[in-house]
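seq as requested:
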Amino acid sequence: MSKLPRRRVASLASALVVSCGGGASDVSGTSAADSTSTAMTTSTSGPVATSGGIETSGAIDTSTGSSANSTASTTGPDPDAIAVAVGYGVQTVRSSDGRNWTDMQVVDPQGGDDENVLRGVGYGSGVFIAVGGAALGFSLRSVDGINWTDENRTPASFLSDVAFVGGVFVAAGGNGLRMRSLDQGVTWQDASMGLSAHFRAIASDGTIAVAVGSTYGGDPIQGVVSTTSDGASWSPPQIGGPGYTSIAAHPGVFVALDGAGTIHVSADGVNWQDADTTLPAGLHRVIATENGFLADGDGGYWASQDGMAWELLPSSSVYAPVADIRGTTLSIASPGLLASDDLVTWEPVYTSVASGINDVAVGAPG
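struct tokens:
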């Protein structure tokens, strides 16, 4: 992954190494097709905790983890890494440098919030997995971002995002749907549902995966969080506070963004603290970078090593970051993707067909 510009982050602590991708499932940081959902009974274990449980001093330990969606890696940016973007109309496209995009494929150029929307993409163990859908969920898999196989339209609700943890892929989506794949996305099992909430994003630190989202059908809308280490069993959903839109991870540190623009930090996905720095309104997305975490907000970009203390990196143009690949930060912006080497100057690098791109993952398939 790329490093935040050194001249802009000199006061941050020592650099981290991370491979990231995935996150919120559309350009606004929330999933589409909410209108297709069916109300179900809410299961809750009480409000999401807001204190305790995380050490933020010193460098973050990167001794564990594996290359995956929003998951830390110990090997640094891989020269063979590629970025894979997915979007509406079962659209896929890939790039080796973040600026030149090739091998675009699309099923429905007029696709929108329907059964052909790909909402999220993740990487792990040499495989890219893309997920989406509306009333029904589906997934695709690829080892190169060109050839996609094993389309599965069996989940009982849409899938928003996917991550790799404990040697398996885990996915989360509508109506509380959480499931796992033991064969790299060919088949899915251990589905858990029965929740009046949609999970919007999922991130893994290599040991734990944390899915975040929001409830529906009640007033007010509240945040929902569930964790797993293997995808077979998930923690009882914690419900409370504003709905979550985005999450990113380094080993032992999860950073989540809620709909009110507040940053929350956790070591385990169970105990959460608000960030020490009060960030402005208008935050859209948070991603993991080599130096820690990056979020966009009114007035510029905000960078943090540990998720708790944030530093403003002013920019004349602010776009929601989605992924980094070898020195280039990517952003989703209608009608496609933008790229920047310094978070100041941005240029269009891909014009999308259909309604746009929803997510990007970076990985180095063998």
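Residues 6-363 form a domain with the Methylamine Dehydrogenase; Chain H fold (CATH 2.130.10).
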